[in-house]
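queue> pop job 88
queue> type: inverse folding (structure -> sequence)
queue> payload:
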């Protein structure tokens, strides 16, 4: 006989945190609880029922006490059914299908992630052939135009083959972008001079690297009063104190 395994406690179930996802969260929590019982080799029905209420937490215990016909202390099955009826009211099938049809692949979502999301949504839609519905949704709502065209050309493509083709396209697209990025970087590097012997070209290259205000400072300017290069040496204008030979006014030369 296999020995029992001591397992850490499960997180409690919070029925009040998000009512819109209440049914889904309870279904997921209950699945984990059944795995917990199986892993711990807990088969006694009285113990299973007690653990169900204990692990679920005080909020669930309070709700359970308000339910009618919950069975005896050793009736684990009825306890699960009553809580499930409370947390998973009768669903609107048409609405569930509508939510499934609205699910479109996002640009930051891989095809496998999109497929997993659709698979999860399909569980509440009661499709006769879930694979067919998921395949149709991927073809209509995936982000890859190439994959869509491939699927439309090969109408007999199965869901598994479609996913394999999509993964291949994603990998090739990623690799192509990596190569193109490297080529772009190489082209940019080729445009930059590395060994230039012509001193004029060196100066022009250095000037291109300077900010506009720095380049403006290298341009020679002329003094308005004397017509010579400005600024003057020793900050002294030769025209200062001189009479113009044309207009006979002071402090500038004739132009």
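queue> result:
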């Amino acid at each position: 006989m296999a020995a029992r395994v001591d397992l850490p406690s499960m997180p409690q179930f919070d029925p009040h945190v998000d009512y819109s996802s209440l049914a889904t969260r309870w279904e997921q929590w209950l699945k984990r609880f059944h795995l917990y019982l199986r892993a711990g080799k807990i088969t006694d029905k009285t113990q299973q029922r007690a653990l169900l209420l204990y692990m679920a937490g005080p909020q669930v215990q309070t709700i359970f006490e308000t339910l009618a016909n919950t069975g005896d202390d050793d009736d684990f099955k009825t306890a699960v059914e009553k809580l499930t009826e409370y947390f998973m009211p009768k669903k609107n099938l048409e609405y569930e299908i509508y939510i499934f049809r609205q699910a479109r692949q996002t640009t930051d979502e891989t095809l496998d992630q999109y497929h997993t999301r659709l698979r999860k949504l399909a569980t509440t839609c009661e499709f006769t052939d879930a694979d067919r519905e998921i395949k149709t949704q991927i073809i209509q709502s995936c982000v890859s135009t190439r994959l869509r065209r491939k699927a439309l050309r090969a109408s007999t493509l199965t869901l598994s083959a479609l996913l394999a083709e999509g993964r291949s396209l994603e990998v090739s697209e990623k690799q192509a972008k990596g190569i193109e990025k490297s080529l772009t970087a190489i082209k940019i590097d080729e445009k930059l001079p590395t060994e230039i012997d012509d001193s004029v070209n060196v100066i022009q290259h250095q000037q291109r690297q300077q900010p506009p205000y720095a380049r403006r400072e290298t341009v020679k300017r002329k003094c308005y009063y004397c017509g010579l290069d400005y600024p003057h040496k020793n900050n002294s204008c030769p025209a200062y104190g001189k009479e113009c030979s044309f207009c006979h006014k002071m402090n500038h030369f004739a132009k």
